[in-house]
Specification:
heterodimer; A: alpha+beta; Uridine Diphospho-n-acetylenolpyruvylglucosamine Reductase, domain 2; Enolase-like, domain 1; five-stranded antiparallel β-sheet; four-stranded antiparallel β-sheet; 10 helices; 31% helix; 24% strand; B: Aldehyde Oxidoreductase, domain 3; Aldehyde Oxidoreductase, domain 4; 3 domains; 22% strand; globular; disordered C terminus
C-alpha cells in the first residue's frame, strides 16, 4: 500500500467536492479497492470514504412501488431490510462472507462492475435505475463492459431503484476458489415480460440473454428454453471453465432459476 | 470406560487455549529491538538472464540501509540439498547451485534478485520499485516432457540437461517385470497426473536474523518444523557459522504440512544481513510471496501398468513417473519421488514383481518438495486408481479384488525393499464396510437419483511408511542426515518434569500428547509435565517433525529418557527405604517395596535427588535429568481403508462429497481426540487435492493460481462430517509405544477414494469415463462426461476419459 490521504465526509456535497481533486478516489466498503491498494496496484492521492454519508444509505419503497436502496447500503443491511424483494435478499446473502457483507456496498459493487459480481445481474434483470449525484441511468445503459460503467469521473452512485418483479430468482454457480459466480443467472418476471441477466460468463461483463427472455415471456417454464443454446462467443475461458462450459451453465442455470421462481 | 488421563485419554489440547485466544507467540509476533525490515525484489518472469541491476537511485531513497544483490553472496555458500539420489546407471543426480539471491539468471517467478533492507517495510518496498533491472527474457521450460527433449532451454546452463536423475527401482527386477507383464492374462494401464499443490499453512513464513556484536552470536527466529536441521544446514553449508555460535528458534508455528521443513533463502539472508547491517533484520512473507516461494508439492505425471493372472492375482507392476523438481533442488526434494514413493508401490498387496522408474526434471517453476504424505500419496493414488480400473475392466468387485491380493502374513518383505512388520488389512476393510454402511449405498443411490443426482462409491486401501527413519538405512539411500530423534527429560526438585524434545509441534498437539505418555509412565497428573521444543538453545539436537515421525521416533526417545529417569529414581528410593532397587515398584506416583508396606512419594525421591542428604553419593551422581537419542530400526506402517460417497450433478459436473469414512490402523493410540483431528485434517486436504486445489502455470511460466481468487482451498462446506475409526490396532513391533503415526494418513488415503467415487458415479450414470485428472472441478467432470476438452487454450490438463498424459506437465500445463 502506498500512503494516501483519507477523508470521511458526512454529506454527499462534501464528498463530491473532495473527489474533484486529481487522483482522488471514492472508497465504498473497500472490499475490492483495499486489496488492490495492498497489492500496490493503485496509487490514489486521496481516498474519499463514503461510509459516513447517511443520505446514501438505507432501503425504502417509493411511490411507484420500487425498492430503493442507497448506494452506501451494505449487503448485510440489504439482507436485513430488503424483504420486499426476496430474490435480491437471497443474492445479497450469498455474497462473500459475513465480513464482506458487513462492509461491502451495493454502490461500490455496481460502480466497480466486476464481470463476476452478483449485483449487476440483479440490476439488469430487474430493469433497475441507477441514480447518481446528478442523474438517473437505466441499468441497460449503465453496465458498459468489464469494469466499465456509464459513471463519469467523480460521480457517485447514490441509489439503485429496483422495480419488484412478480417472480424472480438468482442462480449462482460458484467458481471453486473465489466463490464469485462462475456463471450467475438472474431471472425476473414482470407483467410485461421476462428479463434474464447473466454475470460471470462474458468478457464483456453482465449481459441479457434475449433469446431466453423472448421464450420465457411467452411461456414462463423451464421447458420454454429447452430448444435454445446460449452462444459461447465472447464468453470467458479460464482455469475454472471454458467458454463452452459457461455457455452450457447459462442454460442450465436459467432453467433452474425459472423453475425456482415459477 | 474411556480413560480420562494418560495414554489413551482424549485430553484437551492445552496449547489451544493460547492459540485460540490470541496469546500464542508466533514468529511474526517476535520483534527484536532495533530491527530493520527486508523486502525482496523478485523475478516476475520465469526465465531470464540478468544483464544488469542498477540500485543507484534506490540506494538514496529514504530509510534505505543497504541493498543486496547476488554479487554480495558470491563468497557465501548456496542452499544445500539434503539428499543425493543415485540414478539407474549408478551416477549421482545432477545437483545445481542454489544461490541465496539469484546470480546470472532468474529461474522462476518469485526467484529473489535483490534484497532491500530499510528502516520500515514501506520504505524497503518503495526503494525496491526504484531498482532498475535489465533482464533478458529467455524461453521458459514448464512442461516436463518438453524439458527433457534435446535442445530444450536449460534451466541450469552448467548442467548437461534438465534431467536431474533417471531412477530405477529395483533396477535388477526390470527384466523380470517386463516379462511378467508381457505374459499376463490381463494388463490394466492408466496414465494420470498427481496435481501440483501449494501447502498454504495458515501462517506464512517469517525470518528474523540477529547478530550480537558483543559475543558474535547469531540468532535466527524462523517458521520451521526442524530448527536443529536449519541450524546445521545454514550454519555449516551456507554461512559458515559454527553451530555453537548460532541459535535457531521456531516458536509457535502456524502449520507447516511439510513446507516449513526446508531451508529457505530468506532465512540465510536475514541471518547473514544482520551482521552485515549491524541490525536485526526481519522478513514476513506476504501471502502472495508464499504462493511463489514456499516449496510446492506433488506434481507427478505417471503411467502405471498392473498385470494380473487369470485368477486376478496381481503378478507385476510397472510405473514410469516424471517428477517436477522445479527450478532448484529444495532440501529434500530428490527423496520424495524416489525413496518415499517407490518403496510404497507394493501398497497393501503381495504383488511379487515391481519396477518403478522416475525421471526428475528441472523446470522454470517454484521448487517442489515434501507436502503432507510426500511420495506416499503419489504412490497410493496411482496404485489404488489402477486397481479400481482393473476391477471395472474385469467386472469384479473392487473390494474383493483388493482382498484377494492383500498381504496377510507378517513380517512381509516387499519387492521394493521394505519390510512391513505388522498389519491387518482385512480388519480395517471389514471395519470400513461397517462404519461406511456400504450395505446401505444402493438405497442412498436411489435417493440421490430422485434428486437428479448420480451417487458413486469409491473404496481403497492405503499403506504408508512413517516413523522416518533408520539412519543407517537412509544413509545408504542418499540421505545426508541422520533421522533419529532426541529428548531430554528434566525432573525438578519438586517433582514436575520438563520434556525437551527435538520434535517440533506446529499444530500436532505434542504439548498435550507427550505429557500423557510421561505422566502415565510415572503415575502423576499430566499437568506436572511440560514440553519444551523449537529452540536449539534448550533442546537436544533433534531432527524435527515430518513424515508422521514425532510420536514414533520423538516419543520413543522421550520414553527411553523417562525409563532412565525411573531407573535412577528407583535406586534413590531403594537407598532411602533401605531396600534392593530390584524390589522397588513405581505406581501411581508412589514408590513401594515389594512385600512390605514401605512407600515413598514421587516428590520425596525427586527432592532427594537435588537435596542429596540421604543419597547414595558414592554410587550415583545427584540430580535427575536424562537424555536419550532413539534411532528406529524400521519404518512404521500405518494402513487402512477409506470410503467416499459423492453425488455428481449430471447437468453441471459439480461433485459433492456426501459421506466419507476412514478405518485406520495406527497401532496404539495416545490421544484418540487428537488422532481424530489429524485424520479429519488430512482428509480435508485430500478432498482439496481431489476436487479443488490446482497450482497451474501458463506456458510462459506465470503462476496462474497465484492467490485465493484462483487457488481453491477446501472450506468447511466442501467436506462432510467424517466417520473415522482407529479401533483396528496392530501395534508397531519395534518401538516402545507400539505407535505408527497418524499425521499424513488422511491426505494419503483420501484422494483415490474421491476419484474412484466420481468415476463410479459417472459409470452408474451411463458415462464411460475411466479417469479424470485431479482436481475434479465441475468443468473437468462436465467435459469428461461430454467427451469435450475441458479447456481450450487455458493452462490446465484436459479432462479426458482415456488417452495419454503425453505433453502435459504438472505445472498444470496443457
Amino acid at each position: 500500500m502506498y500512503s494516501f490521504e483519507l477523508v470521511r465526509p458526512k454529506s454527499l456535497a462534501e464528498a463530491l467536492s473532495a473527489l474533484k481533486e486529481e487522483d482522488a478516489q471514492a472508497l465504498g466498503g473497500g472490499q475490492t479497492l483495499i486489496p488492490t491498494l495492498k497489492q500496490r496496484l493503485a496509487q490514489p492521492s486521496k481516498l474519499v470514504s463514503l461510509s459516513a454519508i447517511d443520505e446514501i444509505k438505507g432501503v425504502c419503497v417509493d411511490d411507484d412501488g420500487r425498492l430503493c436502496i442507497g448506494g452506501g447500503t451494505t449487503h448485510g443491511e440489504i439482507v436485513a431490510s430488503a424483504g420486499d424483494y426476496p430474490a435480491l435478499v437471497s443474492l445479497a446473502s450469498r455474497i462473500g462472507d459475513p465480513a464482506v457483507r458487513n462492509r461491502g456496498t451495493i454502490g461500490g459493487s455496481i460502480a466497480n462492475n466486476d464481470p463476476s459480481a452478483c449485483y449487476p445481474a440483479a440490476c439488469l434483470a430487474s430493469n433497475a435505475t441507477i441514480c447518481t449525484d446528478h442523474r438517473e441511468i437505466p441499468a441497460d445503459e449503465f453496465f458498459q463492459g468489464m469494469f466499465m460503467t456509464a459513471l463519469e469521473e467523480g460521480e457517485i452512485v447514490t441509489e439503485v431503484r429496483f422495480p419488484v418483479p412478480q417472480k424472480a430468482n438468482y442462480q449462482k454457480f460458484a467458481q471453486p476458489a473465489s466463490r464469485f459466480p462462475l456463471v450467475g443467472v438472474f431471472v425476473a418476471r414482470f407483467s410485461d415480460g421476462v428479463r434474464v441477466a447473466i454475470t460471470g460468463a462474458s468478457e464483456g461483463g453482465v449481459f441479457r440473454w434475449t433469446e431466453a427472455e423472448e421464450a420465457l415471456s411467452d411461456n414462463f417454464s423451464p421447458e420454454a428454453i429447452e430448444g435454445l443454446t446460449a452462444s459461447a462467443d465472447g464468453l470467458i475461458t479460464d482455469l475454472h471453465g471454458s467458454a463452452a462450459y459457461r455457455a452450457h451453465l447459462i442454460k442450465v442455470l436459467t432453467g433452474r432459476a425459472v423453475k425456482a421462481a415459477a | 470406560m474411556p480413560k480420562d488421563t494418560g495414554i489413551g485419554a482424549s485430553s484437551k489440547r492445552r496449547e489451544d487455549v493460547r492459540f485460540l485466544t490470541g496469546d500464542g507467540n508466533y514468529t511474526d509476533d517476535i520483534n527484536v529491538h532495533g530491527q530493520a525490515y527486508v523486502h525482496f525484489l523478485r523475478s516476475d518472469v520465469a526465465h531470464a538472464k540478468i544483464n544488469g541491476i542498477d540500485t543507484s537511485a534506490a540506494e538514496g531513497m529514504p530509510g534505505v540501509i543497504r541493498i543486496f544483490t547476488g554479487k554480495d553472496f558470491e563468497a557465501v555458500g548456496g542452499l544445500p540439498c539434503g539428499w543425493q539420489v543415485t540414478d539407474r546407471h549408478g551416477q549421482p543426480m545432477q545437483e545445481p547451485k542454489h544461490p541465496v539471491l539469484a546470480h546470472g539468471k532468474v529461474r522462476h517467478v518469485g526467484d529473489p534478485i535483490c534484497a532491500v533492507v530499510a528502516e520500515t517495510l514501506a520504505q524497503a518496498r518503495d526503494a525496491a520499485e526504484a531498482i532498475e533491472l535489465d533482464l533478458e527474457i529467455l524461453p521458459a521450460v514448464i512442461n516436463m516432457k518438453e524439458a527433457v527433449k534435446d535442445g530444450a532451454p536449460k534451466v541450469h546452463d552448467d548442467l548437461t540437461s534438465n534431467l536431474c536423475y533417471d531412477w530405477g527401482f529395483v533396477e535388477e527386477n526390470r527384466a523380470a517385470v517386463d516379462e511378467a507383464i508381457s505374459k499376463a492374462a490381463h494388463v490394466t494401464t492408466l496414465e494420470l497426473v498427481n496435481n501440483r499443490l501449494i501447502a498454504n499453512p495458515m501462517e506464512p513464513r517469517v525470518a528474523v536474523g540477529q547478530w550480537e556484536k558483543g559475543t558474535g552470536d547469531y540468532t535466527l527466529y524462523t517458521t520451521s518444523q526442524n530448527p536443529h536441521v536449519i541450524r546445521l544446514l545454514m550454519g555449516a553449508f551456507v554461512l559458515g557459522i559454527p553451530e555453537h555460535k548460532l541459535r535457531v528458534v521456531a516458536p509457535d508455528v502456524g502449520g507447516g504440512f511439510g513446507s516449513k521443513i526446508f531451508h529457505y533463502a530468506e532465512e540465510a539472508f536475514c541471518t547473514w544481513a544482520a551482521k552485515e547491517c549491524r541490525r536485526p533484520v526481519k522478513w514476513t512473507s506476504t501471502r502472495s510471496e508464499a504462493f511463489m516461494t514456499d516449496a510446492h508439492g506433488r506434481d507427478h505425471v505417471t503411467r502405471i501398468e498392473l498385470a494380473l493372472d487369470a485368477d486376478h492375482n496381481f503378478t507385476a507392476l510397472r510405473t514410469e513417473t516424471y517428477a517436477n523438481m522445479g527450478a532448484y533442488l529444495s532440501t529434500f526434494a530428490p527423496s520424495v519421488p524416489t525413496w518415499l514413493h517407490g518403496t510404497l508401490m507394493a501398497g497393501n498387496y503381495k504383488t511379487p514383481l515391481i519396477y518403478v522408474n522416475v525421471k526428475a526434471v528441472f523446470t522454470n517453476t517454484v521448487p517442489v518438495d515434501a507436502y503432507r504424505g510426500a511420495g506416499r500419496p503419489e504412490a497410493t493414488f496411482q496404485l489404488e486408481r489402477v486397481i479400481d480400473k482393473a476391477a471395472r475392466e474385469l467386472g469384479v468387485d473392487p473390494i474383493e479384488l483388493r482382498r484377494k491380493n492383500f498381504v496377510t502374513e507378517f513380517p512381509y518383505a516387499t519387492p521394493v525393499a521394505v519390510e512391513y512388520d505388522t498389519g491387518d488389512y482385512n480388519a480395517t476393510m471389514d471395519k470400513l464396510i461397517e462404519i461406511a454402511d456400504i450395505a446401505g449405498f444402493e438405497a442412498r443411490a436411489e435417493e440421490s437419483k430422485k434428486k437428479g443426482l448420480w451417487r458413486g462409491l469409491g473404496v481403497n486401501s492405503y499403506i504408508e511408511a512413517c516413523g522416518i527413519a533408520p539412519s543407517n538405512l537412509v544413509g545408504q539411500l542418499g540421505a545426508r542426515a541422520g533421522l533419529y530423534e532426541s529428548a531430554t527429560v528434566r525432573v525438578n526438585a519438586t517433582g514436575g518434569l520438563v520434556v525437551m524434545t527435538g520434535s517440533h509441534s506446529h499444530g500436532q498437539g505434542h504439548e498435550t500428547a507427550f505429557p500423557q505418555v510421561v505422566a502415565d509412565m510415572i503415575g502423576i497428573p499430566e499437568d506436572m509435565v511440560e514440553v519444551v521444543h523449537g529452540d536449539t538453545a534448550n533442546t537436544p539436537m533433534g531432527m524435527g517433525t515430518y513424515g508422521s515421525r514425532s510420536l514414533a521416533v520423538g516419543g520413543s526417545a522421550m520414553v527411553r529418557a523417562t525409563e532412565k529417569i525411573i531407573a535412577k529414581a528407583k535406586k534413590i528410593a531403594a537407598h532411602i527405604m533401605e531396600a534392593s532397587d530390584s524390589d522397588i515398584e513405581l505406581k501411581d506416583g508412589k514408590f513401594t517395596v515389594a512385600g512390605t508396606d514401605k512407600s515413598l512419594a514421587w516428590g520425596d525421591v525427586t527432592l532427594a535427588a537435588y537435596v542429596p542428604h540421604n543419597y547414595p553419593l558414592k554410587d550415583m551422581e545427584p540430580g535427575l535429568e536424562e537424555t536419550a537419542f532413539y534411532d528406529p530400526n524400521n519404518f512404521t506402517y500405518p494402513a487402512g481403508a477409506y470410503a467416499c460417497e459423492v453425488e455428481v450433478d449430471p447437468e453441471t459436473g459439480k461433485v459433492t462429497v456426501a459421506r466419507f469414512a476412514a478405518a485406520d490402523d495406527f497401532g496404539n493410540i495416545i490421544n484418540p481426540m487428537i488422532v481424530d483431528g489429524q485424520v479429519h485434517g488430512g482428509i480435508a486436504q485430500g478432498i482439496g487435492q481431489a476436487l479443488l486445489e490446482n497450482c497451474a502455470y501458463d506456458e510462459a511460466g506465470q503462476l496462474i493460481s497465484a492467490s485465493y481468487m484462483d487457488y481453491a482451498m477446501p472450506r468447511a462446506d466442501d467436506v462432510p462430517f467424517y466417520s473415522v475409526d482407529h479401533s483396528c490396532q496392530t501395534p508397531c513391533t519395534h518401538n516402545p509405544l507400539g505407535v505408527k503415526g497418524c499425521g499424513e494418513a488422511g491426505a494419503i488415503g483420501s484422494p483415490p477414494a474421491v476419484v474412484n467415487a466420481v468415476i463410479d458415479a459417472l459409470q452408474r450414470g451411463g458415462k464411460n469415463v475411466t479417469h479424470i485428472d485431479m482436481p475434479l472441478s465441475p468443468a473437468r467432470v462436465w467435459a469428461a462426461m461430454n467427451g469435450a476438452t475441458a479447456n481450450e487454450g487455458a493452462a490446465q490438463p484436459a479432462a479426458r476419459d482415456s488417452g495419454s498424459a503425453e505433453g502435459r506437465s504438472l505445472g498444470g500445463q496443457v
